[in-house]
Specification:
mainly alpha, Arc Repressor Mutant, subunit A
């Protein structure tokens, strides 16, 4: 008898067995996509998950292309390409450094800051929905476990100081 593929899983069936790391990764991606879709519906279009790694570096102020590249551990060309995308969308602006005209400083625009605020609001709303659907104690416990996992794997400082790098 030939092998037949299993029928597709329905939305009501549980997810396949996942270890903690994969479950956290996929849940995080699903929540991030929900937030991205919601902020797009609010007029903040064109943003991708990967843009967030650069944007997080600009929340506290402007930085040079070279500093962004070093912090993100990518090439200046990669940062420049992302900056051009975000500039075209109206989220960042570039200007010459007054101390060295060869250096370009990148900063969030008012539209970029509004997008950050909208993303924060939508993340809070998504978490509130989780608390409502799963229970506040369960969400708090899951959050604690994931924060402890960050500590155990030495990633808490990077998160706290906005130095999270894009996945390799």
């Amino acid at each position: 008898m030939p092998d037949t593929p299993p029928p597709p899983a329905s939305a009501s069936e549980p997810a396949p067995d996942l270890d903690l790391g994969l479950a956290a990764l996929f849940a995080g991606q699903a929540i991030a996509e929900t937030v991205r879709a919601r902020i797009a519906a609010r007029g903040f279009t064109g943003l991708r998950f990967s843009h967030g790694f650069l944007v997080q570096r600009l929340v506290d102020g402007e930085e040079s292309i070279a500093a962004l590249a070093a912090a993100l551990e990518v090439t200046q060309q990669a940062v420049s390409k992302t900056v051009v995308e975000l500039e075209r969308l109206g989220y960042v602006r570039r200007r010459p450094d007054p101390r060295d005209a060869r250096v370009r400083l990148v900063a969030l625009t008012d539209h970029g800051r509004a997008a950050v605020a909208a993303a924060r609001e939508e993340r809070a709303a998504a978490e509130a929905e989780l608390r409502e659907n799963l229970g506040p104690r369960r969400v708090a416990a899951a959050t604690r476990v994931l924060r402890e996992a960050l500590d155990l794997h030495g990633a808490s400082a990077a998160v706290r100081t906005r130095r999270v790098r894009p996945p390799a």
